[in-house]
Amino acid sequence: MPQHINYYNVIGLKIEQQIELIIPTEMAGLRLDQALAELCPEYSRSRLKSWVKSGDIIIDNKTLRPRDKVNGGEVVIITPVADTSLEVKAEPIALNIVYEDDAMLVVNKPAGLVVHPAAGNWGGTLQNALLHYDSELEGLPRAGLVHRIDKETSGLLMVARTLTAHKTLVDQLQAREFEREYLAVVRGYLTAGGTVDQPLARHPTDRKKYAVRMGGKEAVTHYRVGKRFAKHTLLRVKLETGRTHQIRIHMSHINHSIVGDQVYGGRFRAIANASELLSDTLRAFKRQALHAARLGVVHPVTGEPMSWTCEMPDDMKNLVHVLEHESPAP
Description:
The protein has helices spanning 32-39, 45-54, 126-133, 163-174, 246-253, 276-284, 314-326, and strands at residues 5-11, 14-22, 57-59, 75-78, 97-100, 104-109, 154-160, 179-187, 194-197, 200-202, 210-212, 220-228, 232-239, 290-298, 305-309. The chain is an alpha+beta fold. The strands form 3 sheets. Strands 5, 6, 7, 8, 9, 12, 13, 14 and 15 form a 9-stranded mixed β-sheet that branches. The chain is globular.
């Protein structure tokens, strides 16, 4: 996914956001409106088409038609036009706030909660919840969310509360200065940790997925063994880069897919001679067993290094407990 670069012109209390991005080469041959819909899921395809037609989306310093094909590598500048129908509404959704001050929030997101609205999930998201918790976040892009994790991944997320803090934290993220450690239960017995350094890009046939592909974006994942079981391993995983689905794809690439990953792990595979409890527990685990357990940043105002940790949610704790008792390491 190409990086969005946002520029803000503050006029009174209104913020106009301009987005600059580069169309990746793997999208060559797609219609412009198709490419934009994939790159900007926060806006509907019809809205993006209307902006193309009205000249609010510029490609390589010129206007194109929605049906024009892209070659990849084009620089796109989008100036969103305010439309109340696209406004994200505040919703009273419970939040688990791990830390907060005037500059930022740290939230422990439960599995099953979408981070921000997109096609198919226009409400009931973490962004809706943040706007209800603090109405002043309405003046920040995506209510101050600095990064995101998948819907079915649990754990820590950073939220800025001011534009200055947002820029500082985004700069840290882009400079790879965020500390992000995940816990993951994967298939297979690993004897040691390691690093996966494989580029990622859109899947060649399934546009909702990503895959290891030469010519893709750099992606580096470090992992070490936390605890071994007979046919599974609890890993501590650190991100050097933060590509979409990165840990899930990299673990699958080395043939140690994450337990419960419906997209990259394939169908459920029974374990020979497993107890009924173990088989039932593994079969019932329907989300990827992945948890963002540690987050570290430099405070955007004080410059002080800070970090937070949070325990695995109950479903992962139970999974690990069953593996420990029903499938201990040899």
